[in-house]
Specification:
Elements: H1 2-18, H2 22-35, E1 41-43, H3 49-54, E2 72-74, H4 79-92, E3 95-99, E4 118-122, E5 129-132, E6 137-141, H5 146-156, E7 160-161, H6 172-178, H7 185-188, E8 195-201, E9 207-208, H8 215-220, E10 231-238, E11 240-241, E12 246-254, H9 259-269, E13 277-284, E14 287-294, H10 298-308, E15 320-322, H11 324-333, E16 351-360, H12 366-377, E17 383-388, E18 411-420, H13 426-439, E19 464-465, E20 468-469, H14 471-482, H15 485-496
Parallel strand pairs: 2-4, 3-4
Antiparallel strand pairs: 1-2, 5-6, 6-10, 7-11, 8-9, 8-10, 12-14, 12-15, 13-14, 13-17, 16-18, 17-18, 19-20
Helix pairs in contact: 2-4, 9-12, 14-15
Bound molecules: flavin-adenine dinucleotide and 2-acetamido-2-deoxy-beta-D-glucopyranose (3 copies).
Length: about 525
């Protein structure tokens, strides 16, 4: 009796140890408890585990019963808690994933695609922003949202801003790690082009800043994608000047109203306009919407558009003048939203989504646009969102940061499709895949470039060879995101985390120079 019981236990333990052992999980939790206040730790049995896990999930596709969930969520309130988590994780062979705003398109900040025991470090509580108005700089914690950053800047001055994304709930941590693109990109570049310093907890649990981290690591964290190099706790950014009023417009053009001709022209006009003017295009069904911000008055904008882009038919009635901070809720939440609404961190979990991206370096011919609109007319079709580059974006060499999509890019395309939780999304994901295949001849090639912040695991996933992810296998997706910078990223990874502790399905594999 006793012996068969212990045999059963032995079988149970050996089974568990195949999936990273129970012993190391226990050891990890004990180690955490010794270093971090209990109320900052949420194990799966904690009553609040689910609400903490779901708190910033943006894509509910990754919040289902079959989603692989963390063993524990750590919500640090101090850098030392993050350092202790890394040390405990290394000692007990438990990997960690870091979450800032939870907007990752593939949910990699809080779920694992394959069964594994892992912990989530959720930085949402580390979210302070301190603005130095005189110096026009700010320190922002990774757990802040870009809405919180914008808000804090506007409280200090209405003549300062920061060039980053348009969705206020996006987390600074993941967003800056991958680039950070918004309506100021033609004037001031991406968020990473305006990062001056950062603090990082590395794979040894050390707290580093620009002075103490390797030069290549400071280069790598500004665009090399989240997770790979450690946990960035905070960023020092350079704030940028904006006029007291900016002018916004949004003009929809249906195919019947000439959308195809206007888009064909937009491709070459929008990336060549003065840097103060940004006109993006969003296509849904048979309508292209041209959405714009101009760093100046309506009168000046009318003159400019009259000479450069008369086809759009801009007139006085389209212009909405407002402060830069008012443009943030206006563009993303609609014209009834208030500036305070950009502080609302609650994400609406209404729809499942899938996205991917492209870069266009040669204008797409008009007859191809006709075909594109046929794709978009299908009942299962999604949308296309296109941001023009040029201006400041082109002023940086491809190797200045890991983000390589610079001179020569006309615009990027984001393809997105949505469906409700209650419905089967397979027709919608198939549409996205088929449309992406159709677009191949018309977009950048060798490599077909993609933006890491629009993460798509269909571009390729890491393969573990020995103890680490394979550089060779990573080239498939790595060159799309980073072009020739992928190798330097892998070498930076090899310097700071040769054991590949900070790993996920698309983290940078370590390359260690052979002696
Ligand atoms: C609704 C929506 C709108 C968007 N709009 C834009 C836009 O306008 N412009 C644009 O450029 N992008 C946009 N994005 C994409 C967005 O920039 C990326 O999804 C970004 O990675 C999200 O950052 P996060 O902190 O919210 O995500 P998270 O899911 O928390 O993190 C993303 C990745 O970074 C890692 N990571 C997170 N925090 C850290 C950290 N502190 N240190 C190291 N690694 C970290 C995570 O492990 C994960 O791998 C949008 C996304 C959504 C869902
Ligand atoms: C402005 O353009 C719109 C079409 O986009 C048109 O309906 C409107 O009459 C125009 N207004 C003026 C004042 O020209
Ligand atoms: C915050 O946003 C959520 C999701 O969009 C919304 O349901 C909620 O009403 C908002 N809360 C406030 C206080 O505006
Ligand atoms: C994997 O790592 C362990 C311990 O760090 C080491 O002993 C082993 O040799 C490594 N295996 C390979 C294939 O590198």
């Amino acid at each position: 009796m006793a012996s068969s019981q212990s045999l059963a236990l032995a079988v149970l333990f050996s089974f568990l140890s195949c999936n990273a052992s129970l012993a190391s999980s226990d050891g990890f939790l004990q180690c955490l408890s010794a270093a971090i206040p209990e109320q900052l730790l949420y194990t799966q049995s904690s009553p609040s585990f689910t609400s903490v896990l779901v708190s910033s999930i943006q894509n509910p596709k990754f919040f289902t019963p079959s989603t692989v969930r963390p063993l524990v969520i750590i919500t640090p309130t101090d850098a030392s808690h993050v350092q202790a988590t890394v040390v405990c994780g290394r000692q007990n062979d438990v990997r960690i994933r870091v979450r800032s705003g939870g907007h990752d398109y593939e949910g990699l900040s809080y779920r694992s695609k394959r069964p594994e025991v892992f912990a989530v470090v959720d930085l949402a509580t580390l979210c302070s922003v301190s603005v130095d108005q005189k110096a026009a700089t700010a320190w922002v914690d990774s757990g802040a949202t870009i809405g919180e950053l914008y808000y804090a800047i506007s409280k200090a001055s209405n003549l300062l801003a920061f060039p980053a994304g348009i969705c206020p709930t996006t987390g600074v941590g993941g967003h800056f790690s991958g680039g950070g693109l918004g309506m100021l990109l033609r004037k001031y570049g991406a968020a990473i082009d305006n990062v001056l310093d950062a603090t990082l907890v590395d794979a040894k649990g050390r707290l580093l800043d620009k002075q103490t981290m390797e030069t290549d690591v400071f280069w790598a964290i500004r665009g090399g994608g989240g997770q790979s190099f450690g946990i960035v706790l905070s960023w020092k950014v350079k704030l940028v000047p904006v006029p007291p009023r900016v002018t916004m417009f949004s003009i929809p053009k249906s195919v019947n109203e000439g959308a195809i001709n206007i888009l064909t022209k937009w491709q070459e006009v929008a990336p060549a306009l003065p840097e103060d003017l940004f006109i993006m295009a969003i296509i849904k069904k048979q309508v292209a919407k041209f959405q714009s911000m101009y760093l100046g008055t309506c009168d000046a904008l009318l003159l400019l558009m009259g000479t450069r882009f008369p086809e759009l038919g801009l007139n006085q009635t389209h212009c909405k003048e407002m402060t830069w901070i008012q443009s943030v809720p206006y563009i993303y939440l609609g014209n009834t939203a208030t500036v305070e609404d950009i502080l609302n961190r609650t994400t609406s979990m209404n729809s499942f989504s899938k996205a991917t991206s492209d870069y266009v370096r040669q204008a797409i011919p008009k007859d191809t646009w006709v075909q594109i609109f046929t794709w978009l007319a299908k009942p299962e079709a999604g949308i296309m969102i296109m941001d023009p580059y040029g201006g400041k974006m082109s002023s940086f060499p491809e190797s200045a940061t890991p983000f390589p999509h610079r001179a020569g890019v006309l615009y990027n395309i984001q393809y997105m499709n949505f469906w409700s939780a209650a419905t089967d999304g397979s027709a919608r994901t198939k549409w996205l895949k088929d449309f992406y295949t159709f677009m191949a001849p018309y977009v950048s090639q060798n490599p077909r470039e993609a933006y890491v912040n629009y993460r798509d695991l269909d571009l390729g996933e890491n393969v573990v060879v020995g103890n680490v992810t394979s550089y060779q296998a990573g080239l498939v997706w790595g060159q799309k995101y980073y072009k020739g910078n992928f190798q330097r990223l892998a070498m930076a990874k090899g310097e700071v985390d040769p054991d590949d502790y900070f790993r996920n399905e698309q983290s940078i594999p370590p390359l260690v120079a052979s002696k």
